[in-house]
Write a structure and sequence with these properties.
348 residues, alpha+beta, five-stranded antiparallel sheet, 7 helices, 21% helix, elongated, disordered N terminus
Length: 348
């Protein structure tokens, strides 16, 4: 029997428009890279070689060495815009701590905690170098700068930390950068440590410790107190469409609006229902009580995804709105995209 196009179309019914549109939308996002990959936790104690590889990657981007940069400057460098609101400056702490060896000095020069992410700038200075570092110095593992660090047992970055005495592997989604500062023998480093995305939400001020020096097998930590202006509030949850959606952590600050969400499907949910619900929440938007968008999404991270559970972390540019919601985006039978406020979860 000859299989013509018409026979094939009759043999396989037409896909519902809403399903076809969702599939087309997802494929477009995958092709464009709009869906961020699920981040994986970094291996613990990566050591000098891997740390150097990350330094090389950052240095390859290129930078003009001169100004003393702060947290918001580094945020602007990495994302193209700082995007913070005026009140963000009140969260900045400066000159927090220092750790010194015979020939090198590390200082935490600035830190900002917005209730979800700890961002900090630190400097490492080799005392015997009497000229500003160059990008070549940070891309050459045999440069005088790196030879001096090895001799001192000092590392240009770290991959774990302590908070209130408890040790954590550097969290998934954490980013870093290292650049010349323009001062003699000095490098500036930046760390953007994602905390709330992995359920690390301290209550009030907390102590942070970062390991940068290892002498005779013993690690030395630079220790400082981080001030928190975050206010605890009830975390919303809602059951709708055969799914329980609950906010695990939320912070709406002048720096960023962030939230971690868990979606759990009912036991009788079909695979198609699960895929649609998960896709709706992956497209979630930050909106007001009327469903109007408040700010652009900067990042979406898939922390965990199984057959019946999805955990996501979102970062949005900040908003000054008095009421803030996270709501899924979906499509109706007439192929219209809309914010589904019947499933909206209040963040503020």
């Amino acid at each position: 029997m000859e299989m013509t196009r018409e026979k094939l179309l009759r043999a396989y019914p037409e896909m519902p428009k809403s399903t076809a549109l969702r599939l087309e939308h997802t494929l477009e996002k995958l092709q464009s890279g709009a869906y961020e990959k699920s981040a994986q936790g970094a291996p613990k104690r990566i050591g000098f070689v891997m740390a150097l590889a990350i330094v090389l990657l950052a240095a390859a981007i290129g930078t003009a060495a001169c100004a003393r940069l702060g947290v918001f400057d580094f945020m602007s460098r990495s994302g193209g815009r700082t995007g913070v609101l005026p009140g963000a400056q009140e969260l900045v702490q400066t000159d927090l701590a220092a750790l010194e060896t015979e020939h090198a000095r590390l200082a935490v020069t600035e830190a900002v905690y917005d209730g979800a992410t700890l961002r900090l700038v630190y400097s490492i200075t080799v005392k015997g170098i009497d000229a500003p570092l160059t990008e070549d110095d940070l891309s050459d593992g045999d440069s005088a700068f790196y030879q001096a660090l090895r001799a001192e047992g000092m590392y240009p970055m770290c991959d774990w930390f302590r908070m209130n005495g408890e040790e954590y592997t550097m969290t998934a989604g954490t980013a870093g950068e290292q650049i010349p500062s323009g001062e003699n023998g000095e490098m500036l480093g930046y760390l953007d440590i994602q905390l709330a995305s992995e359920g690390i939400v301290p209550k009030g001020d907390f102590t942070a410790e970062l390991p940068f020096v290892c002498e005779n097998g013993e690690w030395k930590y630079v220790e400082f107190t981080v001030k928190s202006a975050a206010q605890a509030q009830p975390l919303a949850s809602l059951h709708a469409g055969k799914a329980e959606a609950e906010i695990l952590a939320a912070s709406v600050s002048p720096v960023r609006a962030t939230t971690t969400l868990r979606v759990t499907m009912d036991s009788d949910a079909t695979r198609e229902e699960t895929l649609f619900v998960f896709s709706d929440w992956k497209d979630a938007a930050l909106v007001d009580a009327e469903g109007s968008a408040l700010s652009d999404r900067e990042n979406m991270q898939i922390n965990r995804e199984t057959d019946d559970t999805l955990e996501l972390s979102f970062t949005f540019l900040p908003t000054g709105a008095e009421e803030v919601y996270l709501a899924p985006m979906t499509v109706d039978a007439d192929d219209n995209w809309f914010v589904d406020m019947t499933r909206a979860l209040k963040l503020k």
